[in-house]
From TrEMBL:
[4Fe-4S] cluster binds at C22, C45, C48, C54. GO terms for biological process: cell redox homeostasis; negative regulation of DNA-templated transcription. Coiled coil: none annotated. Acts as a transcriptional regulator. Probably redox-responsive. The apo- but not holo-form probably binds DNA. Binds 1 [4Fe-4S] cluster per subunit. Following nitrosylation of the [4Fe-4S] cluster binds 1 [4Fe-8(NO)] cluster per subunit. Keywords: 4Fe-4S, Cytoplasm, Disulfide bond, DNA-binding, Iron, Iron-sulfur, Metal-binding, Transcription, Transcription regulation. Its main location: cytoplasm. This is Transcriptional regulator WhiB. It is found in: Cytoplasm. Upon Fe-S cluster removal intramolecular disulfide bonds are formed. The Fe-S cluster can be nitrosylated by nitric oxide (NO). PROSITE patterns: 4FE4S_WBL, HMGI_Y. One of its GO terms (cellular component) is cytoplasm. It comes from Natronosporangium hydrolyticum.
Length: 124
């Protein structure tokens, strides 16, 4: 396993470092084990100008964990929320299934939006 950064397939838009929450807060927040901290990281991603590109890139790379583009990745898949340790309640399992479907749909829309932007850039 290499720790070298993966090559980017698309040129990243130039954005000031001040606009990126992942550059202004503790990076460990995006890779925390605590569900509350991951929810905070998700909320910070909401206003990021690179949110869609970040989410699409993480989905393509199947990131093993962390918050990417406002979504939580676990084992390469988007999860609605990270469960705390212990056995979940039955109603939590049902709610998680609905949230997982919603998160997967958002991820698919983000990938499509980024691909459409890329196609427009290439056509220009």
């Amino acid at each position: 396993m290499s720790l070298a950064p993966a090559p980017t397939l698309r040129p990243a838009p130039r954005v000031g470092q001040d606009a990126l929450p992942c550059r202004n807060f503790d990076p460990d927040l995006w890779f925390s084990d605590a569900p509350a901290q991951l929810e905070l990281a998700k909320s910070l991603c909401g206003g990021c100008p690179l949110r869609l590109e970040c989410l699409a890139g993480a989905a393509e790379r199947q990131e093993p964990w962390g918050v990417w583009g406002g979504e939580i990745f676990e084992h390469g898949q988007v999860v609605a929320r990270k469960r705390p340790r212990g056995r979940p309640r039955k109603e939590d399992v049902a709610r998680d299934a609905a949230l997982r479907d919603e998160a997967a749909a958002r991820t698919a829309r983000a990938v499509e939006a980024v691909d459409a932007r890329q196609a427009l850039r290439l056509a220009a």
